[in-house]
Request: fold
Amino acid sequence: MPNHTPSSINTRPEEIGLSVLGRPILVHYHGSPEAPLRLFFLCGQHGDERAIHRAAQLFSQSLHDSPELLGDLLQVAIITSANPDGLALRSRLNDQGVDLNRDHLHLRTPETQAIHRFVAQWRPHLTIDMHNFPSRRLHLLARGLRLAWDLCIDFPTNPAIPVRDGHPLFASLAQALELRLTEAGFRYGRYTMVEPNGSSRHGTPQLLDARNVLSLRYGSPVVLLEARNPSKRNAPHDHRHIRQATLLACHELLRWATNHAETLLTLQSHPPTPSRVPIRSRRRIAPQPLNVPVVSLSHGQTQLLPCNPHRPLVEGRRSVSLPLAYAVPNSETGVLDLLRRQGLSLTTPSPSPGFQLVPVTPATGPLLALLLEAKSNFSPYRRSPLRDPIRRITSFTDSQSIEALS
Reply:
């Protein structure tokens, strides 16, 4: 593929916000605005992940050069650099010292605020969150090993998310990517955290990152795409190898989304409406250890590293039925500010009894339950006594309260 520079990407860019230092955050669009299925590729939340940023630029250029890849069904939006200050400074964090991929709940940075405004307006049917992962972990290096994967995929794991790990849609995507990438000679797998004590798990269920929070807040599936950080040794070959794996995965995602367009469209128009929401969780230990592919640094051969115990699945516990609304006292300014930043509706009953009503809808109910239920272990306020005054409103007898709720 030609060595295009960023300025040569000639798409329909739109500025959706500014970084802390005033750099524009740009979205590049591809395909017809009338195409029914919208895919959003979010890249560059970590400014030091320069390889995936470059791959996203090349993917955007490939869609400009070959628009037929999208057909009549797809339109694509790509943010190649969600953290332009971090990219300029070669820093994982933004200029405020914040990890953007840990700010999707609180939305304290202008960068994550811009991402959420865009998602709320454009309403993608599938979001792909792109990153690089370091294959050289200290505890593996001590054994002369590194992770062998070229590219990994992962899914939301919070048990309140309807389309999460274990859903047939994600199983189909994982199978399609595995077939395409392994046929092309790349090492592909499920992104896995290998711990120093020998155990392994997949991502966190906590409300931290784009994967879990965007899924909960907006209801559309989110996929994590992790490409290996290229090695500094033999750099040109390895950089090219990882770029090729990433581009192949992105193009396969387009093909897969086209084949599953009806399911993706239905999920947004008729989202699952759980009658009960799990507000606590535990990890289940798999009966067998997980064999993780690793490469020997001494002779370059791939081998399998048994990880035991392996905790692949997050199970929901202590489910609650959703109320009509939550009542949050006006004194709980931190909670109210978080809800406002998330764009959730707040109403003041008349006459005001000193609290704000937070109406519950099928779309917002799971996130509200995780944040506001007293027994939830996902809320940032779970260790604070400040949540005690928050009340569940399960019925309304006062007409003014009903009017405020509506």
